[in-house]
Every structure is written in structure tokens, then in C-alpha cells.
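Quarterly update, task 2.4: calcium ion-bound model.
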Amino acid sequence: MTETSHAVIVLAAGAGTRMKSKTQKTLHAIGGRTLLSHSLHAADALHPSRIVAVVGHGRDQVGPAAETIGEELDAELAIAVQEEQNGTGDAVAAGMTQLEDFEGTVIVTNADVPLLTGDTLTELLAAHTEVPTAVTVLTMRLPDPFGYGRIIRNEQGEVTHITEQKDATDAEREVDEVNSGVFAFDAGVLRDALTRLNTDNKQGELYITDVLGIARDAGRPVRAHIADDARELAGVNDRVQLAAAGAELNRRTVEAAMRGGATVVDPGTTWIDVEVQVGQDVTILPGVQLKGRTTLADDVTVGPDSTLVDVTVGEGASVVRAHAVEAVIGARADVGPFTYLRPGTVLGEESKLGGFVESKNATIGKGSKVPHLSYIGDATVGEYSNIGASSVFVNYDGVNKHHTTVGSHVRTGSDTMFIAPVTVGDGVYSGAGTVIKDDVPAGALVVSGGHQRNIEGWVERKRPGTPAAEAAKNARESAD
Ligand code: UD1
Ligand code: CA
């Protein structure tokens, strides 16, 4: 453990039964990160000497998830196991087993408070260390405090203790200042108080909240730090609160993009994950979802109605009504409308992927175009080539996938089939309806299929009585 004077314990051992889910509560996601990940990233922003994640219920899911998130963090992450979920006090005690020799400030947060920011934790830590304090609880005032622990103060306005909803008297339930579940503790005071907790309460659990009363009774100073923005401290206990937290997080993320110089025409239908980067003078039209590690360079236009997942979009590109996953769209490229970019699509500068085109594992060079109704998979296309409408890169023989290589300045006719593996040289032309099975040398015109044959009178002879035969008869008679 490196020597800084504060550590963080993140509680993530609770059952989360109100989610009614196979997935552990803290592994539900908003803004592209799990609740657990949000809480660990907020803790990391404090630059603590160590972060301890306390896992218990569903720990076969939560433990490995925490380890994976730990790899993205600057701070060292330790996992503590709370064997039985005997309450938040017991959970903090489990966390302290990973901080045995630690002296300084222990910050405790909950993994189910995803909007809590590193800035707010930093303010709490500053408030706690400004004057000698044994415990500082982060509180908020709520119009409807139901369900939360109430902050009880004496006539001098000093915090004396916290009373849980279920244990509160009618008078205490009137109190609108509540416990956010986030605390700063002096490590020594916390260690001592944890040995004094008891289960004499309605839930029969060890409450971390009781540490305040114990510390104060021992003559140690206990204070509250009231958060400016209660919405940041909203806990997620069920799916209704999950959606509300997701909407609030998104509102903040979209607002940050606008403050950074992006135009968002309809913030209400724009969803941006927290790790997405949005450049200046980007325009986002209604119905856009930017997910994962998507990056939009300056002057990009996206939308309406587009979803980009882990997509990199170059400067000045335009993406209209597209669905793209793990793709790269080059500067000033033109995508859409109604275009599906699957993983491994790499579009060069000023290239185009037009309407009803699907691509996968395809590199399309600078200025090349696939404008209409085509499938381009497992392919490399050079620069300034044009793939005619309704073409298919036939990459799959039923067993294996094969690659097609098309050179630069190629002009293929409509309905060209590229039967992979095949290579088409630079400057090649193909006739409409060509089936390219063999390599085509540079500069050739390739055509396939025999000459057209018209078998006169076939419809009237072979399909008598049909509307087509009737039309054919009428045409013949009026020509006679
Ligand atoms: C808790 C607080 C309450 C506060 C509220 C804020 C207590 C007794 N009550 O109530 O004062 O207003 O948070 O949201 O602390 N957990 C464990 N192990 C356990 C029990 C819980 O790790 O044995 C974890 C949960 O995963 C969760 C956190 O502790 O992250 C809070 O537990 P929860 O049951 O949600 O507490 P609340 O009833 O919300
Ligand atoms: Ca809770």
C-alpha cells in the first residue's frame, strides 16, 4: 500500500432483492458502466492509497467484475468478503480487514449510488480533514426522506446520531436531512466503534450508522457535510430508481457535451455513455445513442436515429440513420441512411457507405464508395473505387469465410458478385450482373454469363390463362 492518508471502502455485498434479477444489483449498468464501476471510478478519483470492495451476496459475479474494473483504476484494489450480510456495519468491518495497519481517513461509500462524483468525495474529505473530526457523514435534504436514515441533531444543531427509517419515532421521521450512506471516518475511531456495534434494532443488523452515536458518546467530534446536489446521492434499489439514475446521469453527460461545444438538437432522445468523447461543433440530431468508447471528432454530424457502439468517427464525417458497432469512420466520410456497420469496418477518408448497405470486417479506402443496397464483408477495397448497386461480397462458402481484395479506381457494374477468395486489380471495370469467380487483372473489363436469349411466345404457350399470358396476347394483337 502506498502512503497516502486516505483509503476507500465500497460496500457491494448486499442482496439487492428489490431488483428482482439474476444479475447482482451493482452489476446493472447505466451510462455504459455498471453501478459498481461508477462507484469504484469515483473512489479512484480521490487518489486513495487503497480501495477495498466488499463483496458477499452474488460474489461469484461481483468479485471477478470488481477485479476487472480494478485493472482500469490508478489505485490498488483489494477485495474483502463479507460472509453473511449482517448489515452495513458488518460490511465495513469486513472491509477493514484489508486495512489492518492503515491510519488516516477511511471513506465509506455504497456501490448502489452511481451518480456520486469524485468531486463530491473530494469535498467530503476536505470538510473532514479541515478541522479535527472523528466522523463526517455526507447528508442531503430531501422533500421525501422516506426510507433513508435520518440525521438527528441536538438543540445546538450538532449531529448526535442517525436513526434508520424503521427505528425512527414519528418526530424523527419528520426530519428531512438524511444519511447518503457516504462517510469519512478516522480509522482508529472506526476500528474501535465497530467492536461496539450491536443488533438492537428493528432489522437485527449491525448498522454502520451507529458509529456516529458511539463516537460522539466517547467525546469525539462528529459532523455532517450537506451535499449541494441531492440528485447525485440517489441510491438505486429497484429498476425504477435504476432508470431514474440512468436518465439523470445521461442528462449530465449530454449537458457536458453541449458545454464542450456540441449541438444536441434533442437532449431528451440523445443517450451518451460516460466514456464517449464528443468534439467541438459536432451536431447530434434526435434519436442518437453513443455507446461504449465511441469518439466523435470535431464537425461530425450524427443522426437522426443512429446507434454507435465503440465507433471512432473522423472529423467532418456524416452518419445518418445508421447502426454501427466496433467500426472506424474516416474524416469526411458519408454513411447512411439505413446503413449497418458491423465490427471491423474501416472506412477511409471521404469514402461512402450508402443506403441499405451492410459491412463487416471490411476496409474501404479513401474516396471509395459503396452507395446502394450491398453487402461488403471480409474485404479490402483500394482508393477511389465504386462498387455498383446491389453487389454482394460472397464471403461464405457454407464452411469458411474468405477474403476479397479490390484495387483502386475500380468501377463495378450493378449486381456484381465477388465470389471470395478473389482479387480484382486496379482500374478494373465489370459489367452489370457479373459473377466474379476468378481473379481479374488490372485494367480488364470482366463480364460473365452467356448472351441474352429471348424465347418468343413462351408465356402464351407455357402459361396460358394467366394475367401475364393475357397481357402478352393483348400486346401481340395490338402490334398486329
Ligand atoms: C443505508 C443506511 C441509511 C442510508 C441509506 C442511503 C444503514 C443501516 N442504513 O440504508 O442510513 O440513508 O443507506 O442509501 O447503513 N451492504 C453490504 N452488506 C450488508 C448490507 C448492506 O455490503 O450486509 C451494502 C449494500 O450492498 C449497499 C449498501 O451496503 O451497497 C447499503 O445497503 P442497503 O441495504 O441498500 O441500505 P439502505 O437500507 O439503503
Ligand atoms: Ca440502498
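Highlight for this quarter: The first helix runs from residue 35 to 44.
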